[in-house]
Specification:
Distance between the termini: 52 Å
Order of helices and strands: EHEHHHHHEEHHEEEEEEEEEEHH
CATH topology: Purple Acid Phosphatase, chain A, domain 2
Number of domains: 1
CATH architecture: 4-Layer Sandwich
Structural class: alpha+beta
Number of helices: 10
Shape: globular
Radius of gyration: 19 Å
Length: 329
């Protein structure tokens, strides 16, 4: 009897937001993992941080496919002639609007800018099917997209109001009711067990009981950090993952590479005294449905300098350092 062929694990990243320093740290962490077959990205690669060209080049050169996020959608509008003021009138917050316009300027001034824009946002004909966002197949039983849409076509946060309040997210009008999403006929098509999302910048998971005849139950899970000591006395920490059992479906938010919203993190310093911030991604095993969350740290000084130079003094890191990011998308 032939042995069953196992597939490799898939690293899922999202919300890089022009933070090349954090992306490099993530790719380094991923390179140390075993059996990673490929990397996929769930959008929002630009905006906020000032290393736009470097981020898009890295994704292109490493063959990391990304679906469109709301920041890529806004970038397409800018490419079509919409100005910063127009983005603000559409409800995009001022920091995002300024940085998206700035990202477009950076890309158009790059010698390979046309190629980078084509890679990032595609042609004008790139569109969405079935009223759902553009999505990526992640293994035979899972898909990924930046986030779900409401009836008007706007991307919405997928998390409870309680969790949003904990992490200082004040866009209460952007929450999507779990039952509305799960009951949508295009959400869980036959054989589909998991969705992976970005957008909220908070690593979470919703596990739904899908046994026929039973009332829908939504269990919201926030990955917890556990500390441990190895046999040789070395101390470490890890983020707990989970595995979907039989009869359950999951919607997983992988967190953010470039801009994390978790308020319960610990800022650490290098031996040289440089501040470091945490970031998150997830690893999915298509064979057994296991999801591992990964936390890593990156130095923020270079990102801060590049962002200030690109978009001005009032930038995202002012809010990050004060932990006031309630109005960011």
């Amino acid at each position: 009897m032939a042995k069953e062929t196992k597939t490799g694990r898939i690293a899922i990243i999202s919300d890089i937001h022009g933070n090349k320093t954090a992306l490099d740290a993530a790719l380094h962490e991923i390179s140390r993992k075993k059996d990673i077959e490929r990397i996929v990205c769930l959008g929002d690669n630009v905006g906020y941080c000032g290393q736009t060209v470097e981020v898009v080049r890295t994704l292109r050169d490493k063959g990391i496919h990304s679906c469109l996020g709301n920041h890529e959608e806004a970038l397409k509008l800018v490419a079509g002639g919409i100005k910063e003021g127009g983005l603000k009138l559409m409800g995009i917050n001022p920091i995002a609007a300024r940085s998206i316009v700035g990202a477009y300027t950076q890309l158009t001034r790059a010698p390979d800018g046309k190629e980078l824009l084509t890679f990032l946002i595609g042609t004008p004909e790139r569109h969405y099917e079935d009223g759902l966002p553009e999505r990526i197949q992640i293994g035979k039983n899972a898909r990924g997209c930046h986030s779900f849409r409401d009836e008007k076509g706007s991307m919405r946060y997928f998390m409870s109001a309680e969790l949003a309040d904990k992490y200082g997210i004040k866009h209460t009008n952007l929450f999507q009711k779990p039952k509305t999403v799960v009951d949508h006929p295009e959400t869980f098509t036959p054989g589909l067990k998991s969705w992976f999302l970005g957008h909220t910048h908070v690593p979470t998971a919703h596990v739904f009981e899908s046994v026929p005849g039973k009332k829908l139950k939504d269990h919201e899970y926030v990955p917890q950090r556990v500390e441990f000591t190895t046999r040789d006395g070395k101390k470490g920490a890890a983020i707990l993952g989970f595995k979907l059992g039989r009869g359950y479906r999951g919607i997983v938010n992988v967190g953010s590479i470039g801009i994390s919203r978790r308020r319960d993190y610990e800022t650490i310093e290098t031996s040289k005294g440089n501040a470091m911030l945490p970031a998150y991604y997830a690893i999915y095993n298509p064979d057994d449905g296991k999801v591992d969350f990964v936390e890593f740290y990156y130095e923020i000084e270079k990102v801060r300098e590049e962002t200030k130079k690109a978009f001005g003094e009032k930038n995202i890191f002012t809010k990050l350092e004060r932990r006031k990011w309630q109005n960011l998308d």
